[in-house]
Amino acid sequence: MKIISTQNENFKEEFDEILARAKTDIKGVSSIVTNIITEIVEEKNSALKRHIEKFDKWEAKSDEELLISKDDMKKAYENIDENLKSALHKAYDRIKAYHEKQLPKSWIDFEKNGTILGQKVTAVDRAGLYIPGGKAAYPSSLLMNAIPAIVAGVEEIVVCTPTPNNEINELLLAACYICNISKAFKVGGASAIAAMAYGTETIPKVDVITGPGNIFVATAKKLVFGEVNIDMIAGPSEIGILSDSTAKPKYLAIDLLSQAEHDEMASSIMITTDENIAKQTSLEVDNYLKTLSRSEIARKSIDERGAIIIASSMDEACDLMNEIAPEHLEVMTTNPFELLSKIKHAGAIFLGENTPEPIGDYIAGPNHTLPTGSTAKFYSPLNVENFMKKSSIINFSSQAIDELGEACAILADTEGLTAHAESVRVRLKKDN
Question: What family classification does the UniProt entry report for this protein (predicted)?
């Protein structure tokens, strides 16, 4: 792996290159995605079926063929290995228990003058989940997107997933069965995002769309935002690791590769205060690369987007990592909790040598749909509130409007909104 030091003369240029890791050519695909969305809006299912034939290489001869049946989900669930079935249920239970702790509450507050103020929290009516399919089908993504919606109380969950050559991943079907998904469709890419955003004869319009995808999916989500809500614009996966002299190079190396094997665009970045640890970790990465099933993908990711940075102190290391704001951040130090207050920006924080990032992907409970490309500076992990919205509650008594009405009217006058002002003052005229 490339090793650089903060003491290098050209470190700023090297670090800026790391910060630019997630820049993608959305402009380059925007016109393509815009055309796809327009076709779905205007032609609905006809365009959907045409896109499926073009991109997924199979022909949907009827609208019904777009639907994934509940029977297929049940059959897939019944046929999977019992140990895998148990693992899926264990993951479901832990994810559900964690997200139940996130549920926001409605509240009411009573003031002395009779004013009643509050907030009502309700779930959206319908949520659309985009789940990658084909060779990159991840049943864990279905669990992580569906369970927060279930906990929020969403009445209807719609799933879209691409099915190249009309082949559906059995584990994804089993996960759909566990989550009791009743509406799932064999539609992928920007077409699926457009279909869920605007609706077709078969796929209902949703209120919010969540889930990961490639650049076409990410661009489509960005373009339909406003018509529906979205969770985030996610890019390639990434990991950051903070380590000191006590960290085990074997652990560090395989954890860096756990993200590199996702795809060639993934980023794996470690910042350490120990030069020897940096060199040993780099050697271990080379050793592990010879054994991985996805070694070509991981090697390209490590060569083009991987880096080990040697920092002069742990404070400097934390400052740099906050600038990177990684999707996943492992803290492999003597006492990782001591650094927690210094970490401001990360999608998920994994503390200690027994907490590798994959634990968060599958079984820990917190959501693995996380902000990437430094967006952890302003985005949060997917959570229950992505599937909920809040309404303000206001009730003024006669005493309250007498006390506050004129101040309100003065402010309305200042903005030149005379009807606003009179709407309040007419209530202050008791003879009316």
Answer: Belongs to the histidinol dehydrogenase family.
237 is in an annotated binding site: yes
Give the domain range for residue 163. 26-114+122-230
Residue 23: pLDDT band with limits 50, 70, 90: confident
Q: What pLDDT is stored for residue 24 in this prediction? A: 66
How high does pLDDT run on average in the chain?
95
Q: Are 340 and 292 members of one domain?
A: yes
Residue 375 within any structural domain of the chain: no
128 with 223, same domain?
yes
- Give the type of residue at 299: R
Tell me if 167 is assigned to a ligand binding site. no
Instruction: Among 364, 383, 406, identify where a domain stops.
Output: 364
**Is 336 in the same domain as 415?**
no
Model confidence pLDDT, tens digit, residues 191-237: 999 999 999 999 999 999 999 998 999 999 999 999 999 999 988 99
Output the domain CATH number for residue 251.
Answer: 3.40.50.1980
Annotation marks residue 327 as catalytic: yes
One-letter amino acid identity for 96?
A: K
pLDDT at 135 over 70: no
Catalytic hit among 51, 238, 261, 328:
328
Binding residue per annotation — 328? yes
Q: What is the pLDDT of residues 307-335, one digit of tens each?
A: 999 999 999 999 999 999 999 999 999 99
Does 420 show up as a binding residue in the annotation? yes
What is the pLDDT averaged over residues 170-193?
A: 96
Q: Which of 238, 284, 327, 357 is catalytic?
A: 327
